[in-house]
Amino acid sequence: MRISEVQRRSRALVHEMGIEELPVDILDVATRLGITVVTKPLEEDISAVLVLNGHRAAIGVNENHHLHRQRFSIAHELAHYMLHRDAANVFVDSTLTFYRDGRSAEGVYEQEIEANAFAAELLMPAELVRYEVKRSEVDIHDDVAIARLAARFKVSQQALMIRLVRMGLINE
Amino acid sequence: MVIRSDQLYTFIGNQIRDQRKALGLTQGAVAARLELTRTSITNIEAGRQKLPIELLYQICAILDVEVQTLLPPLEYVEFLPEADGDVTGVIDRVPPRTASLVRTLQEQLKEQT
Question: For the residues of chain B, what is the DSSP string, one character each?
Fold first, then answer.
């Protein structure tokens, strides 16, 4: 799948959910998609899991991680649900390896790239990012300003920086 | 002693490692005799690789033990409820707390249907 298609689908979800305010209520998005989200203390390198059964789905998030990371993990699993649910019944996302059940060993890396792109678009919708950057006249070389903006989106500074670079709002 | 059925390969891997060390063999030496890579032996001993029965017997020959030495008695094995066929493969490789959560979520989703 092209990244532009991933973005199109993520934007469609942002639109459908009527997301216009910050921070994006990711739990509400999950709930409205009929997906239960539970938090549990998991092994350090595990971010989250997505479990599917027919049309039903549940997400489990590592509660030991920072809240901002948990939000990104939930968005990442929602992306797997929206984009890849035909590929596997269990998605286990780890910082080290990506575990999948048997159906699709191939294309796992593409799936991860797609899920991250989708998640970034969902938590940091392009329009809202542009608006916030403009409104607050953020100097993107100012660490404090970046931290403040990240807090507004409730995402990690790293996730925000990647997003700003991808959107061409700052140079690498 | 109870061994959960999803931990069988870990158990067998440990038995193989203990016996190999008792004989003073290196993973490389065992690998060479089986024409496998040392990594395969590492994975088998860690329970990450599911070894075919034929290979199990070959290993027994090299380690000079009867096959039941490496396998737990039936009465020690606790069978887990059957998971969806295409899921078990992944659970073996996922760390325990996460695997447990995956199973819980699977059960919950099943109950909802």
Answer: --EEGGGHHHHHHHHHHHHHHHTT--HHHHHHHHT--HHHHHHHHTT-S---HHHHHHHHHHHT--HHHHSPPGGGEEPPPPPPTTTHHHHHHS-HHHHHHHHHHHHHHHHH-
